[in-house]
Design brief:
The structure is a single chain. The strands form eight sheets. This protein has a five-stranded parallel sheet. A five-stranded parallel sheet has the order 9-16-10-11-12. Strands 21-22-25-24-23 form a five-stranded antiparallel sheet. Helix 1 (12-24) packs parallel to helix 7 (297-311). It is 28% helix and 23% strand. It is globular and about 90 Å long. The longest helix is centred in the C-terminal third of the chain and has 16 residues, at 535-550. Flavin-adenine dinucleotide binds at residues 8-14, 33-36, 43-44, 46-47, 81-82, 112-114, 133-135, 162, 244, 247, 278-280, 295-298, 300, 325. Residues 8-14, 33-36, 43-44, 46-47, 81-82, 112-114, 133-135, 162, 244, 247, 278-280, 295-298, 300, 325 line the site of flavin-adenine dinucleotide.
Length: 562
């Protein structure tokens, strides 16, 4: 019997479900409803349409309703909002483009209505110069406003992915302030990794207001919670999204604890004839051992395919998602997978981390630059929990590799052993991934101990013994206040001058030479020795943005970012 399948939402999840359904069932009647004017556009590229990276909005549209119809024989109804579901009658109510409402019946219904921007009730949020960035109409409105009002300044409220990408792209033509209530941008990243990206924004002229949210939007300015006022001919609100669940709620479908639509492993809601996918639906998060929300494009497309499969009688194991993601901030790329430090602590998993900063390619190759890679693992099993990388080049490649290993339940040993491709222009023979595995194993086996760079300010203020094992020239170019310089090459001859009765904190440029020093010191009877993870390079980056934003006294005489 011919199935009749209705789909609500025509972008990532909806269009994917429709196309897969057609591939599996040539005879089904498939109707896709989209309330906006376009289907199948790249929402992820929307921020890039605010700079010249994406020259115009038509470039964002990957598929027109006409082509979709012709290729897939799928009836696409744009400008058509599904406003209600009658589960008993198996019909939906549609508000058509001409304003007239009608009912459409279904055998199966797939909901992929996405998420909507959260707009806090702050005074002035309805002013004409306040925008969100969710769809092509939003992007068009922002572009027209900038051009039509000769805007020169902008404030972006919210330092999540959309906020940061929006700020970075607007900064191509406007003087931009990015305000964030947390103490860092991009909270899915650890605090130390986010500092690297904050520096990149500052270096490119974006003003940062951290620990600060919008209190009121005025003409040409935003008043922040701190009382500070920042200029803003244009304001983009990017404080987060919430799943669009009104249709599902009103129809009595179960909503999960996360606030998104509850679904089983096949994407089926509490009504067996209705499926939900994408930002509106929950997904399995195996590292957290729970279901939750994940507003990312790949899970939307993958779950859409799964729902289509289930409607056509096919099922496959649902392994859930690690939540891998990436972002480009000016000349840097950052990527992460799995759990971050805050998640791991909230889950009370005993853990440690490996932080390595090798060159992203062989150092003599043009464009070689440091790659910051941090890998979290469980203690004492060495099971991988998450990883984050920031740098020029391809940090995302390292995270993709680690994501694959985590997905298979892998350990530090797996990272250390994995056989990766190598040539000088794109990696080192022992890649960052291997180094992170090896450093983690050394930590796990007690071959050295470490402290994070976040502890160093406290150590300096407490007058702790800090040993800098770089060469004298490196020390002279910038060092931690109060640190003693004994180069690694001279260390064995100058042990007598070092204290054995209190902890010794050792660092070099990136943590590698100081690891060697820790081994020498341990072999020579120094019991309380700690490597400063990431060493001077990570410390400089960790301290820089906060020093600059707060005007506090630096703990280093000069920063070193190379
Ligand atoms: P959407 O793709 O948002 O589609 C939902 C559609 O449903 C919308 O077009 C909406 O108009 C329509 N709709 C809603 N209600 C109804 C109704 N009642 N009737 C008819 N139509 C309806 N993810 C990444 O992984 N990487 C990125 O770099 C990234 N960048 C992003 C940048 C921006 C600016 C945005 C907004 C999102 C970004 N995302 C990114 C997230 C990603 O786009 C979403 O996770 C994905 O699009 C979700 O797919 P979806 O089908 O659930 O929702």
């Amino acid at each position: 019997m011919t199935k009749k399948i209705l789909i609500v939402g025509g972008v990532a999840g909806g269009a994917s479900a429709a196309a897969r359904l057609r591939r599996l069932d040539e005879t089904a009647e498939i109707i896709l409803f989209e309330k906006g004017p376009h289907i199948s556009y790249s929402s992820c590229a929307l921020p890039y349409s605010l700079s010249d990276t994406v020259p115009d909005l038509p470039s964002l549209i990957l598929m027109t309703p006409e082509r979709f119809r012709a290729q897939h024989r799928i009836e696409v109804r744009t400008g058509s909002e599904v406003t209600a579901i009658d589960r008993a009658a198996k019909t939906v109510r549609v508000a058509g483009p001409d304003g007239r409402a009608y009912d459409e019946s279904y055998d199966f219904l797939v909901l992929s209505p996405g998420a909507e921007p959260i707009l806090p009730p702050i005074p002035g949020r309805d002013r004409p110069h306040v925008f969100t960035l969710k769809d092509t109409e939003d992007a068009e409105a922002i572009r027209q406003y900038i051009a039509g009002h000769h805007a020169r300044t902008a404030a972006v409220i919210g330092g999540g992915f959309i906020g940061v990408e929006t700020a970075a792209n607007l900064a191509a033509s406007l003087d931009v302030t990015l305000a964030e209530t947390a103490d860092q941008i991009l909270t899915p990243f650890d605090h130390d990794m986010a500092q690297i990206l904050q520096k990149e924004l500052l270096d490119h002229g974006v003003h940062l207001a951290l620990h600060d949210g919008a209190a009121a939007i005025e003409d040409g300015a935003v008043r922040l919670a701190s009382g500070r006022t920042v200029p803003a001919d244009l304001v983009v609100m990017a404080i987060g999204v919430r799943p669009r669940t009104a249709l599902a709620r009103d129809a009595g479908l179960a909503i999960g604890a996360s606030g998104a639509i509850a679904v089983d492993a096949d994407g089926r809601t509490s009504d067996p004839a209705i499926f939900a996918v994408g930002d509106a639906a929950e997904v399995a998060l195996p590292l957290r051992r729970m279901k939750g929300r994940l507003s990312l494009a790949f899970p939307a497309q993958k779950e859409a395919r799964r729902a289509a499969d289930a409607i056509c009688g096919r099922t496959s194991p649902n392994r859930g998602y690690l939540g891998s993601f990436g972002i480009e901030v000016f000349d840097l790329r950052a990527a992460a997978t799995g759990l971050n430090e805050r998640d791991i602590e909230a889950l009370r998993i005993p853990h440690d981390f490996a932080y390595v900063i090798p060159f992203a390619r062989v150092s003599l190759m043009p464009g070689a630059s440091p790659l910051h890679l941090k890998v979290h693992f469980e203690v004492p099993t060495g099971r991988l929990l998450g990883a984050q990388a920031v740098g020029r080049g391809t940090p995302d490649r390292r995270i993709d590799v680690i994501a694959a290993v985590i997905a298979k339940g892998g350990t530090l040993e797996d990272l250390a052993d994995i056989d990766l491709c190598y040539a000088p222009p794109f990696a080192t023979a022992k890649d960052a991934v291997h180094l992170a595995g090896l450093v983690g194993l050394n930590l796990l086996h007690g071959e050295f101990r470490q402290v994070p760079v976040s502890a160093v300010r406290g150590l300096v203020e407490a007058g702790a013994a800090i040993l800098d094992v770089r060469e004298p020239g490196e020390y002279a170019a910038g060092h931690i206040r109060g640190a003693v310089n004994v180069p690694l090459s001279a260390l064995r001859d100058r042990l007598a001058g070092l204290p054995k009765d209190r902890p010794l904190y050792v660092h070099c440029r990136s943590g590698q030479r100081s690891y060697y020093a820790c081994r020498i010191l341990a072999a020579r009877g120094f019991r309380d020795v700690y490597n400063i993870a990431g060493s001077y390079l990570a410390l400089s980056l960790y301290e820089y943005a906060e020093d600059r934003l707060t005007g506090r006294e630096p703990i280093v005489t000069a920063y070193n970012f190379r």
